[in-house]
Amino acid sequence: MSGYVEAGYLVVVLGLGGYAVSLVARQRSARGRLEPKRTPPTPREPGAKR
Amino acid sequence: MSTATTPAPVAARQSAAATRRRLAIVGVIIVAALGFLVYKGLTSAIVFFKTASEALANRAALGNSTFQLEGTVVHGSVHHLGGASVAFELRQGGATIHVVNSGEPPQLFRPGLPVVVVGHFVGTSDSFASDQIMVKHSQQYIAAHPSRVRAAGAKKSPARP
Amino acid sequence: MKSNRILRLTGALGLAGVVATFWLGLFVTPNAEFFGSLVRLLYVHPSMAWVAFLAYGMAFLSSLLYLWPRTRHPRFDHLAGASAEVGVVFTGLTLVTGSIWGRTTWGVWWTWDPLLTTTALLFVLYLGYLALRRVPGDPEVVARRSAIAALIAFIDVPIVYFSVTWWRSLHQPPTVNLASRHLYVHGIMAFTLFLSFASFTLVYAWLTAQRYRLYALAEKEADEGLDLALEERRAEGVPA
Question: Both B54 and B130 in a single domain?
Fold first, then answer.
């Protein structure tokens, strides 16, 4: 193959993968900022992981 | 700004000012980019190329200005000149224009295909000097016959970095 | 919860579909006449553009639902923002994969062809939309002006799609032509192309849902921040 083909596939993997990872990381940090303020352990919201 | 009415700590208000400044910069960049793209759209994209017959019909008006010219590469007309140059004829709507391109044509360049070349007429002649060839291809993709796969693969071992 | 399980399933199916598409696209599908192995970019590039259109369509619909008084709800504002942001990612990938493909087939990384120009315009329009969403203000005012901006930006989507038929273009018409209802590819190549459309659509759904959650979290955080600020003010003895 030409190298261009592989580059095209790689760009898609890196672009979407990077974006997905950034979204999950931002969610985690947002939850981290929200959690400590709550004194009573509130039940986990449906979106929470683990 | 209505958030100013809510009681916010001083630090938050300062960062709001920084946010606004950053957004103003982003806004200027985006508006400039939009303006540039609309300009490109109206000047280059709306008539992306002139066909060979149009170019010959407007030969006098075109002078030696640079434009995109479209036509089909005539079978048997392609000659490799010294260096990386290539000469060929473009035909469209009964008009034929002789083109000399400085530089290697794209790997998919071949006779019988429509191409768009970027360049200008030479002197007062009807021959065209280009420095870029763009190969037009159809939207159809046909599986190669197995025996041809090897040939295509061999032809395409990239000489390009 | 049920919605959470559906989302996980969507993500898993999308990922599996993309893996299958890549495997078929890189190793199983045949080379094409004339294009040789360059045909393999068919299985990544058009699906990026398709998802971008879909994402902007979703942002358009959500914005309409937000502007319609009977259905006005912050969730539609959030969905519009989430979908548009994912759309921008896919538009960026459309431009980059298209540039790579263009370099090898046409011979140029970029040219001011109507399709390319209007697609670049699409990218910048929605970047502008995302920037506009960040301009601070009363949440309802921000949501309303964002919704109007999403409706305006969407005008460019049909222009992009029809640019290859309306104007002289270097770019070929779509291989899956919705207007003429014609398909220009067959067999396993067509299957892989459709698999790529389906898989990246699922990936789009998953990403949009994740981005949507981020909006919900940010809103919650803003509410709590406001409560906290009010408390501080009261403690300082300043009338809030």
Answer: yes
